[in-house]
Design brief:
This protein is α+β, with helices and mostly antiparallel strands. A hairpin with a 5-residue loop joins β22 (236-241) and β23 (247-252).
Length: 784
């Protein structure tokens, strides 16, 4: 490898909104990448130029997508297929061109965390302590039961055409590896001191394993470990062999991708650090390029080829992002004092091995550097910020499974605490019930435990929010900085019984029920408070306006005073009449218009500006037309329209123009081409659309003069047409809440919903976990 260029970034692929937990490379007419994420989707990436673009997003997964695979051609799938393993224990198979699964394999009772295909076969591993071998059409062949904990890793050691001759490797959280023929293990491999997380077959007699003990082991099939590779400083999540079978790659919780040679046990060949805490998965392309999935939601590809490497500007930006990434001190420093560390002069001394790390003190700052043998230099990895504890992306392990939280619950004085595991995607009541059953506790404690979970987790605001969550969200405004918009509070009533909760049984804030408790029945509908998009960084918007003002045609340029006057219109205390120079900004090039539309969005929250927007002849039609120009413009326009419902001065105008608004929404959601729907900010358009729908439903439900049969019918028909197009969970939730708000105590709306067969569309979502499923169930009750 020394004769080749060290691995460098080729491209980064953005699209997932949460951790990318699994990546794989395969053939679907051409070499492609498939990724699976905690955002409940999988994505297909196809090559375009030197990079890759998202060609399809696969939905319908009820929980995190924990594993992905690519299946070969068959009678049912002449072009191959995409396969996902999910948190709900199901395996879903997709035609590459279809967003919804064409078939589902059931059998596992817990998260399917590993998938591998071979011609005619599919192999799966699960947290239910089993692995399963399937025919490619979903027919079960054999279940491998014998591990004492989750089966994290699987591999085919030998895979002939006959299922009876297949040899399978499984790695488990019980720290062991087993080799199977049929349904019986005939060899066990012991040596790892923590969960086995990954396997890779070198040849018919050798394989690699990686574990949470931060080691990689090389085994021969007779049962002996013949080498151990050291270098990672934390959990190792992924392994993959290079095409030449002499080199392999690994990735893990230490933010690194590492390249190794099979015959060089004592040294890593190259270490590539990523600006993400967890590098969850790794795969390799035919040409030796390496694909990773990480906790920052990105898929990245690294290459040794100078022709395929990113340009100097992209590489520099990547290095800067890496250098600015704060490094948790507990990963490297332990209890070392900063005053004991060497100064920057130590960087003049060359490193002794690839990936060697060194902590350097520079004044009051401590930085971590890594030695790159290929470049013969120390590369800054990040600044050490102290032992800040576990990153948000890092999961807690309990009985070999990953959880967002593992609470310690003291049931009785003098007895050891019980462990209460919980994922934010779960219903707190269901998690509480499982805890009660497992520990043989009284049903009397159900409310207490459920409310303890709600109070001590992020269930109130996470994607996996329970039925008691408010309609808040974590969407970052893409143009105005890191601020998130915060919808008005009180939209969804809470049924939380405990205000203070430390421990549900013996803590100082414990709740003691007066009688036999019953699970409360929440009611989401009707929602009465309009939602808006509040927060922004005015300084960032102003700066962008000034930048674009210098680039537009001189006839469209404004003085700095005029720019500031326009910006001030967003201030609720402003005495400015109207929105000055808006017509000029609407003549700017469409790709430079969004900061001006962002000011318009902010101004529309205030009654006097709201009145101006609604009374300005023809302005609403112009804005709707502008909304079709670019995704950022569409997002800002729809957010502005959502605000028009908030104040009485504009509500009549809004209702008068509802058909034009609904037509625009339908056009955007059903007719947009890939330049819109594959845009990284498309999810924000979906949320804006759903907020328009929800605010219209509130307006119609709360105002008798607007509650006409025509208005209800028009809105419900619009919802029926866009419901299947929504992929963002928050957008889907808001749209469903709009349905519930319209149906609440309204027989006409219920009749209309039945007439357009809306129930059949809602049925699909009732089994989705979290708030979408709960909301769907409540709507179906209204439709009975």
């Amino acid at each position: 490898m020394s004769s080749k260029m060290p691995y460098k970034l080729r491209c980064s692929m953005a699209g997932h909104s949460k951790d990318v937990r699994s990546v794989t490379v395969g053939e679907l007419m051409e070499e492609c990448v498939v990724s699976g994420s905690r955002d409940k989707t999988a994505k297909l990436w196809l090559p375009e130029g030197l990079g890759f673009v998202c060609d399809q997003t696969y939905i319908g997964n009820e929980g995190y997508v924990s594993s992905v695979a690519i299946g070969g051609t068959s009678d049912n799938f002449p072009g191959g297929c995409v396969i996902t393993g999910c948190q709900d224990g199901k395996i879903r198979v997709y035609n590459p061109g279809s967003v919804n699964p064409t078939s589902t394999f059931t059998g596992h009772s817990d998260t399917v965390c590993a998938l591998i295909t071979r011609p005619g076969f599919l192999l799966s591993g699960s947290w239910d302590k089993t692995a399963r071998l399937w025919q490619s059409d979903g027919a079960p062949i054999v279940t491998l039961s014998g591990h004492a904990a989750a089966v994290w890793a699987i591999e085919f050691l030998h895979c002939p055409n006959s299922a009876s001759e297949v040899l399978i490797l499984t790695g488990s959280a019980d720290k062991t590896i087993k080799l199977w023929k049929g349904d019986s293990p005939f060899q066990s491999f012991k040596g790892h001191t923590d969960c086995v997380r990954a396997l890779a077959v070198c040849d018919s007699n050798r394989f690699l394993s990686a574990a949470n003990d931060a080691t990689i082991r090389l085994w021969i099939t007779s049962g002996d470990c013949i080498a151990t590779f050291y270098g990672h400083t934390n959990y190792i999540y992924g392994l993959c062999m290079m095409p030449d079978r002499n080199v392999f790659v690994s990735c893990g919780e230490d933010r690194s991708l590492r390249i190794w040679k099979l015959d060089v046990f004592d040294e890593c060949q190259q270490t590539v650090f990523l600006p993400a805490q967890s590098v969850w998965s790794v795969s390799v392309m035919r040409n030796g390029d390496i694909v990773t999935g990480s906790s920052d939601g990105l898929v990245r590809i690294f290459t040794q080829s100078p022709e395929r490497a990113a340009n100097a500007e992209v590489l520099q930006a990547f290095e800067q992002e890496l250098a600015q990434t704060s490094l948790n001190a507990q990963l490297e420093l332990g209890g070392i004092k900063a005053s004991d560390l060497p100064g920057p002069e130590s960087l003049f001394e060359p490193g002794t091995r690839e990936g060697q790390t060194k902590m350097v003190r520079n004044g009051e700052t401590v930085s971590c550097y890594s030695w790159s043998s290929g470049d013969s230099e120390w590369t800054k990895v990040g600044d050490v910020v102290g032992a800040a504890g576990q990153s948000e992306a890092t999961k807690n392990l309990h009985e070999g499974k990953e959880y967002d939280y593992v609470f310690s619950v003291d049931i009785e004085e003098g007895k050891p605490p019980l462990k209460l595991p919980y994922n934010t995607s779960e219903d707190p009541w269901l998690a509480a019930q499982k805890f009660i059953h497992k520990n043989d506790l009284s049903q009397y404690h159900l409310d207490t435990v459920a409310n303890f979970i709600i109070q001590n987790s992020k269930s109130g605001t996470s994607d996996g929010a329970s039925q008691t969550s408010n309609m808040s969200n974590t969407y970052v405004d893409p143009f105005t900085g890191g601020s998130r918009y915060v919808p008005s509070s009180g939209n969804v009533p809470s049924n939380i019984a405990m205000n203070v909760a430390e421990d549900p049984f013996t803590g100082s804030g414990r709740y003691i029920p007066a009688g036999q408790p019953k699970k409360p029945e929440p009611s989401l509908f009707p929602v009465k408070d309009f939602l808006c998009f509040d927060q922004a960084k005015i300084e960032a918007i102003t700066s962008k306006l000034r930048e674009f003002n210098e680039k537009v045609d001189p006839s469209l340029q404004l003085s700095d005073a005029d720019l500031l006057s326009f910006v001030q219109s967003a201030d609720p205390k402003s005495t400015i009449q109207g929105i000055p120079h808006l017509e000029t900004f609407l003549r700017w090039p469409s790709d430079m218009m969004f900061p001006a539309l962002d000011i318009l969005r902010l101004a529309s929250r205030h009654p006097h500006m709201n009145r101006f927007l609604s009374e300005k002849e023809g302005l609403l039609d112009v804005l709707l037309a502008v909304g079709r120009s670019t995704v950022p413009n569409c997002m800002m326009i729809f957010r502005t329209i959502a605000h028009l419902s908030m104040h009485k001065s504009a509500q009549q105008t809004l209702m008068d123009h509802r058909e034009a608004i609904f037509a625009s929404v339908l056009s955007v959601m059903t007719e947009s081409d890939l330049s819109f729907t594959k845009h990284s900010q498309w999810k924000h358009v979906e949320v804006a659309v759903s907020t328009i729908i929800l605010n219209f439903s509130i307006l119609i439900h709360s105002t008798a003069s607007f509650a006409t049969v025509e208005a209800k019918s028009s809105l419900l028909c619009t919802i029926g047409k866009i419901l299947s197009k929504l992929q963002e969970e928050e957008a889907l939730f808001r749209t469903l809440v709009a349905v519930g708000t319209l149906l609440a105590d309204d027989n006409d709306a219920v009749a209309i919903a039945h007439s357009i067969e809306l129930k059949s569309k809602i049925d699909y979502f009732q089994n989705v976990s979290g708030k979408v499923g709960e909301c769907s169930k409540q709507i179906l009750l209204l439709l009975k």
